[in-house]
Amino acid sequence: MAVGRLGLSSWHRVLSLSGRCGRYSSTNTALGKTVENSEDVREEIVLPRRKTWDKLAVLKTLASTVKRDPTAAHYMFPDDPYLMPRNAATARLYALSMESGRNAAKYIIKEFPHLFDKILTEPNIPCMVPEICTPQIEGVNEEALKERVNLRMVKDSVDMFDQLLQAGTPISLETTNSLLDLLCFYGDGESTQEKESGEKEGLEESEVNASEQETPKGQPQRGSHPSASRWRENNNAERIFKIMPERNSRSYCAMIRGMVKHGASAKAYDMYMELLNDRHKADVHTFNALITAVPFLKSKFVERWELIKMFLNHMVQQEVQPNVRTFNAVLKVLRRCGGVGRSMAVPVIKEMEALEIEPSLATYDHLLSIFYRTVGHTPSGIISEVLDDVERRSFSPQDPDDANFFISAMQVCCDLKDIKLAYRLNKAVEMGDNWKFLDMDRANSYWTRFFSLLCMMEQIDVVLKWYKEMNPSLFYPSPKNILDLLQALDAANHLEAIPSVWEDIKQLGFSKRRDLLEELLSLMSRDQHPEEVQLAFAKCAEDIKTVHEQSRKDQAPVEWTGSALGSVTVLFSRAGRTQDAWSMMERFQQINRIPTDLVMDEFLSCAKQTNSPDEAIKLVKLAAALGLPSLQKLKSRTEKEFELSENQREVLESIQSDSDSSDSDSDRE
Question: pTM of this prediction?
């Protein structure tokens, strides 16, 4: 961010808000050497004998000449119009199916390794050879235990450790710590490979874990995460930790990180106190984990900040250098500290710059969340300064939360309704490898928000240009995107593009969405258009009629509403399709709906245009059957605007509403 650089002592003002608590970084040395006699110094120029090229230089050069094809889908899908996904749901299903296939292949390799013992490949590529997933060392010894730990075989590693313990075989501290790391990483559960072969056992264990994590009143324990915790009391990790003859910092740090990861924040804090009592030092990763657990240890915002300062002061005392994950952990906690977080976020960022630690995308994500959680507290300069930094850099992954930045930033642009900021953010996405932070789901969410903002703020020509280039190469429009596009077309008086949008709606599989159908029909039937446009609208109305009437075994037909039925009738009438319009008029009586005066007038005008007096008389009869107050108006229009035969005039004069007939009967009595 474009903020002033502070001295190194400012870090301690962030920690204690007053006084000095120590220093993190040493004094910078001068860049260069002082030379007393510059005449005696001659710069030697060394010419390289040859240019050393990167192994991927040719591929990178070729890739730079290829541009994105706006008509092609995501690269993970086959380039076949019959196999490409139609919308975001099918794209996600396809991606999950591919991942499921890879997991199935791994399972086959693990369960049947004898089928892959002969590798006959020329040339032999080590990275393509299936990974050995079965133990090769037999017997009960420490080397066999190390192998099982490296293969992430949690249950077998614990069994081997217990066998060595019962046999009285000493186990080195390094090996015990490796086992402890494994247990704490998986929360004393099973690794991914073991889960695939023992789902039933894992299900029973998870039920036991859930029952043990609840208090007698059914409330979660103090310092635990709201989600179901996997850290059991006296599990294998705790048991092995207690029986270790000696413990070092790595032993304590492994336990603390494992407890924080799996929800036992209060136990992690108690373990940290034991570490201090035994005069050990924690590493930076352990401090980062403890900071992230602060919201589960303290409820008040001020108490959370005080606990963060305590951990940071301990880092100073133990001479632990912070890293970018440390600052990200602090900012992540400040997201949940209300006004305290907003007041301390900028000083934390300034101290980060003073220590010459470059922010990651997660840093900016937390910062935007702190200041833009509510639109009412939105300082306009924060996101601009963030984009100033992001635009100049190509980021690499440093934090699991890095991938959330671009989506959060685009949401801020939408909340602020600032299209210029959105363009700047999109330019930053295209810089270097930043686009890799958007996987398929995140990319679809990002482009969905960007397109909604375009429909709201841009000219219709620009919106349609982006729509053509983005679909389906970048994202699959959601129903909300289609509604936004229809509203943009309406605002720009560009409704002649609706038929092409309807084709996209059918392609995306949204043809049964009632909200889209209602909006589409309302826009097409609201005003009169040129004949060519009306014929295209009538074709769309015919497709919509088919959608309402067509039924499948797995889907029920869409029910008619009065507004949809009236709009289709109007569209058929304006296109001169009298028979189709009358079939829709008959449905009003079938579904017990009353057509509006506009629908009746449009149909009568259509009957006049096609010179169909019989259809006009049918309309008058329908109005009488429905008891419409516009009956007399329709009768008079029919008499004046149509050339009727004597028989037709007699039929028209004999038509009267049910109320009129009842009145005449009462007069006779």
Answer: 0.80
